[in-house]
Amino acid sequence: MSDDSTTPDDGTDTGSGPADPPDGTTGGLSKRTLIRLLVGFGIGIPLLVEGLTFLGLLRDQFGGSGGDGADGSGSTSTAADDGGAVGVGDDMLPETDRSETLVGAVLRESEEGRWPLSLTVDVTNTGSTDYEFQLLGVHLEDGRSVDGRTSTDRLAPEENRTVTAERSIPAGSTPAAVAVVALIYREETVETVERRVDLAKIPVRGG
Amino acid sequence: MEIHRYEKLWTVGALLLIVGLIATVTYGAVGPGVTMVDDSGGTVDADSLGDTEFSDPGVTQVGENEYEVHVVARQFLFQPGTAEPIRVPANSEVTFYITAADVVHGFELAGTNVNTMAIPGQVAEVTVQFDEPAEYGIVCHEYCGSGHHTMAGQLVVVPEDEYDTEDS
Amino acid sequence: MAYVDDFPTDARIVRWNMAVAFLALGIGGLFGMVQALHRTGIFRGFVSSADYYTVLTGHGVLLALVFTTFALCGLFTWGVTRSLDRSLPSVRFSMTWFGLMLVGSIMAAAAILGGLVPSIPMSADVLYTFYAPMKAHPVFYIGLTLFIVGSWLAGVDWFRTYWRWRDDNAGERIPLQTFMVLTTMLMWYISSVGVAVEVLFFLLPWSLGLIAEVDPLLTRTLFWYFGHPVVYFWLMPAYFIWYTVLPKLSGGRLFSDPLARVVFVLFLLLSTPVGFHHQYVDPGIPEGFKFIAMTNTMFLLLPSLLTAFTVVASIEHGGRQRGGEGRLGWLRSLPWDEPAFAGCVLAGLMFAAGGFSGMINAGMNINYLIHNTLWVPGHFHLTVGTASALTFMAAGYWLFPQITGNRLRFRSLATIQPYLWFVGMTLMSNAMHRAGLAGVPRRTAEPQYGSVTFEGVVGGVSEMRIQIAIGGTLLFVALVLFLLVVFGTWLGGDGTDTLRVNSSIPAPLSGPEHSPKILDNLKLWTAIAIVLIVIAYGLPLSALVADGLFAPGSPPIPV
Question: What ipTM score was computed for the predicted complex, to two decimals?
């Protein structure tokens, strides 16, 4: 197989002969410096990264207290530390003397770009004055939120109402909390309780 | 065929490495007795799990320190495991029977070697020794649909004296 | 005279194959960067977490099937015509297989990308493994079928060229590059039978509603019958370059032609009867078959370790030809600033690391610790993602001038690109391996769970995430540099430049005349390969179909 005749047939690619203009180099760097930089950083950094990992593995295996990650920096979010999270059956605002029980939390997968979330709350006005309970925006794990407003409207004492808040959240996102407002109607004034209620994990229903 | 001396040495070294690796795995199987998931769990009809031993998934005690856990994996939760954690006592031998109701899922106790597939129609039988009290996260590690990243659960190994069989 | 002058029509075929390959690489690589930023939580604004899986499917299919296969077709067309010194017999036939592969790829890609647009009723969020009972749109399966059939015809094209050469050259040894092409394609024919059966007899009719249920374990097993040898379909073209071109780039000659033949024969024999090592933790498969797959897999290390020796020996020879002396001094005389050389060598170095992590994957009961964790993508980005991809890019730098007639443009970008890829991949893959040891799952849009704590073995999980994001971004930058060079070269001239590249390939130090003729007996090796497959798969497959081809069955679940 013959080839082009511009180079000596020493089997190497061009760029190695002194007669060639050094257009394989950048901004006047000599070939040697360029190679030193490339190989130095290009192979040096990976060697460093792998070397540190190897040392870390050795230390984990032979040193320390058996490597149980006690420094905590290895862990991600805490497990099941959901003391305040409200699940189905729980009262959403224990601090009020009225009862607002989460009776349903359903999240379904859908083909569209948004998934339907329904939160159903059973509210009984166990107090002596009028009361209203509202579900507002749903906060997602990634920091976004989806607005909305679902209200029981003003409930007289002893009155009971069940409301369902339907929110459409971005597909694949995870609800973390819901903003709620409770309005306790007194003689002349209205006392407002505004809270962000953490929600326990709502499994996604497929299909 | 002419083979360079270094090449012969290298080939011998390569073969030794290969045999050594096989020996390591064999030791793991024979010594500590780490068995692979196999076909001992049998098959099941994924379309009618309600007529099988998976109709009421959960923990059952079958011996002094022996327990069985039937787990159904479905889009996008483990039954049990997600809505409430799976609870077993410390110092027990637990055999998991895991299947899937819809698509292929994974079942792994993160950071451990309890790791298997949940395939509809098949039952994965996995026996695990739990010694110390601990909390393990259960991860579905096989893509199963758009809610896959939400699919997780918990397994809690409870101190023996605190374990109440009604907890299962 | 450059290749484009000696073989103008074949050069066109090579160009088009490489163009499609590198376009697929560009799109797939862009998706990869989106994924790296999304799953680490750095930036989730490109797609929703549900659409992440659409992007992931596109990444897998475009890179692991379209990019790799078209690159192979370009390289092998060049290699066969060059080593036999004759053109492919029929341009129309060649354009047919190219067209089939292209149409198939576009159909599959359209089905996948349809998942991003709600108004398009097609989607294929099934990932590159498309496990049943998850179901893609039928267009996806049809596209894959056309693609595979096209690749079969490409092999026929090269075999036909060889047979015509054989008619004129009875008794001669098969030239090495053609030998490698033929053995690779024989392996491909044997191995793609599995996925062809899976798609044609099961998934496609099932997705069209012609059959009600398929057995998910059977279809999965058929996929993995194919799914392991496909990685050798990615690797053997890289070895093809390392054996036949890299020695010349190093300034020397291939150390041993016979050993290269032995290596390729070993791949033909051992690539397929190992598929169960992807199913070590599957229920329904007895442990004995998993053990057989394991021992076969461990022996597959041998051809790669032999390659390491031969390639390094050839490079050392080249270094000494260039004036290097001393035990290691020859390293310094090598052309590290030549992009084709650097790309191949860095790819080879990285492959060694990938091989070691592969040994862990192959260790049956050790596999429990890392199955389906992020360790696995960490491993295969070293192998297909670097050994294959970076070698194909390096070969591109060397070949593009010869197939276009244009000098390499943006040479300084090309010089740094392999090193940038190497650094980016080290960062990303190192963190993926560590995250996998902690149990972080793969194929997941948001691996952050409230109920699961991941304990990093070395370093913290959040630090690993940042490292993955940085590595992935560096890789994407390196990819852009590569595309600039290659498409800049192709479109930047009219084919009449005086080329600087020296395209001659010197004869090996130890030629084929030193090897037993039996090595060239392709029929024998194919027969043995089939026997080994029957041993590894005969009993398990018959056990799986014993209770019915479609039982235990599952209906389709569209995604």
Answer: 0.94
User: Which is more confident, B5 or A76?
Assistant: B5
Same domain, residue pair B30 and B43: no
Tell me the CA distances in angstroms from A193 to A97, A180, A183, A185, one per residue in order: 12, 8, 6, 11
Helix (H, G, I), strand (E, B) or coil at A177: strand
Q: Are C176 and C243 in contact (CB under 8 A)?
A: yes
Alpha-carbon gap: A70 to the closest alpha carbon of chain C (Å)? 9
Same domain, yes or no, for C240 and C281? Answer: yes
Q: Which of residues 106-165 of B touch C (CB under 8 A)?
A: 106, 108-117, 119-125, 135, 137-150, 152-154
pLDDT value for B166: 54
Q: Chains that contact B by 3+ CB pairs under 8 Å?
A: A, C
Residues B20 and B44 in one domain: no
Inside any domain, residue C207: yes
Choose among A80, A201, A206: nearest Cβ to B145.
A206
Looking at the structure, do residues B71 and B84 belong to the same domain, yes or no?
Answer: yes
Strands (E), C78-168: 134-135
Number of domains within chain B: 2
Question: What CATH number does the domain containing B157 carry?
Answer: 2.60.40.420
Q: What distance in Å separates the CA atoms of residue B79 and residue C250, rounded to the nearest whole number?
A: 60
- Block means of pLDDT (10 residues each) for chain C, 559 residues, are 91 96 97 96 91 96 98 97 96 97 98 92 94 95 97 97 95 95 97 95 96 95 96 96 96 92 95 95 94 94 94 94 90 93 96 94 94 96 97 96 93 95 97 94 91 86 94 97 95 85 88 90 95 93 91 90
If asked whether residues B44 and B30 sit together in one domain, one would say no
Three-state SS for B61? strand
Q: What is the pLDDT of residues A65-100, one digit of tens each?
A: 444 443 333 444 433 445 568 988 899 998 888 899
Q: Are strands C134-135 and C557-558 parallel, antiparallel or unpaired?
A: parallel
d(CA B41, CA C322): 63
- Distance in angstroms (rounded) separating the CA atoms of residues C122 and C558: 10
Range of the domain at B19: 1-34
pLDDT digit string, tens, across residues A167-189:
999 888 889 999 999 988 888 78
Strand partners, C214: C554
Domain shared by C309 and C404, yes or no = no
Residue C551: domain span: 177-245+251-318+524-559
